[in-house]
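Supplementary Note 3. Input sequence used for the single-chain structure prediction.
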Amino acid sequence: MSERAAREGDQNRQGALVFTATKPFTAVGDDVFQADGSLFDRARQPRNPISRAQIEIVLSRSVAAVAVIFALQTLPVMLEQLDSRRASAAVPIAIVLALVIVIFVTATLTRQGIRIAASAVAAVYLAALFVWPPVMIDPTAVLDSKPWLWYLCGVATSCAAIALPLAWAVVYTVITPVTFGLLRVLPSGGEAENLLAVLDTFYAMLLGGTVLIIIYVLRQATAQVDTAQSNALAKYAVAVRHHATEVERVEVDSIVHDSVLATLLSAAGVRNAKGAELAAAMARSAIIRLQVASGERNVDDAAASVSQLAARIRSAAMATGVFTVTELCVAGLTLPEHAAEALYSASVQAMVNSVQHAGSAQSRTVTVGGDDQSGCIICITDTGRGFDVASVASGRLGLRVSIHDRVATAGGVAVLRTSLGHGTTITLTWPRPDERNDASGDQSVEPKGSLSGRDAGTR
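The predicted structure, written as discrete structure tokens, is reproduced below.
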């Protein structure tokens, strides 16, 4: 692959992937000889693809919202139980726990230090469980209700699931409910029956385990999505470079056929000084075209009017001396310069083919007009002898490269009607017609002969 193709691939990589999926010409005798398929479709990437980072934000904010709700629910119970606890120690513990919850909520909003804040919530909560009995004014007095820390147990285990590795999160999800269950049977924890303490322990453990499983599963799924996206982007880059290489190959093949081969044939037939001068001029022109082709190519060229394209085609037709050009409803129509250049070159090649191969013809015409897609349709017609596609040598590049591939690469489509004794018509359309239009008509015709891709014989 050349440097120009690599540069073009890098440029296209920044946008949507442009690819060509065209079928070769299909000869159908007196009927339609058409290239069908999707040309220059653009594969859109999702605007907001799911990623692990996004899932982490959603999970952490969900836990933060639940933490705020449960903290507000805990506040009245905490104030009610404050009379049975030493204020000098109980109030700072409550303030520190509330502070780390606020820090955690803030971290989820700013997307900074989420795991550190979640770890702080889990650590402070577990410490509060251990210091609960010593902070009671009378450790032997039975508490009237559950300790207010019960309402934040699920918040603590959820924060541990977010902040800690899986193994440590599992350990925390087991240790914290068990610690609360042991506290529950003490007088400072309400002196609950063993069965009730066990049920509270398993309930808290089940709740924390469920949250941990959900978080772990979502992390694994989004990690696989991230891997798949990375692989897709790598394949996308390769496909873009292959497309750039194919575009360059078509362009160079067209130039070789249109300029280089003609120059070599002219030089081989030189018989005098005038012929040698003409061959030299043709060689200089071919070299210039090859040098231009080796430079950078922009698929988003500036617009060119269809009227200008028709004028260029008219000038080329006048040079042949046998074609007449007709313009139909082209005022105000524009198309990209690279498309205009491709249509012009293909039209000239079609006229050259007619002059060289169609023999004497009563009529040779070129019609340039607009279509219902604000595009352009060019018909090159002659009443010459026509030809049998199957009999054309496979080494000929005129139709396949200089017309079909060139128009397809620009985003258009080429249609050929031909048969022996009934002339030839080549229709160039840009942009490619909608599939619905393709499906109604030409595709319903049963082919009588066919060309098969690059090995096909074309003029």
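The first strand starts at residue 17 and ends at 22. Residues 119 and 163 are 6 Å apart (CA to CA).
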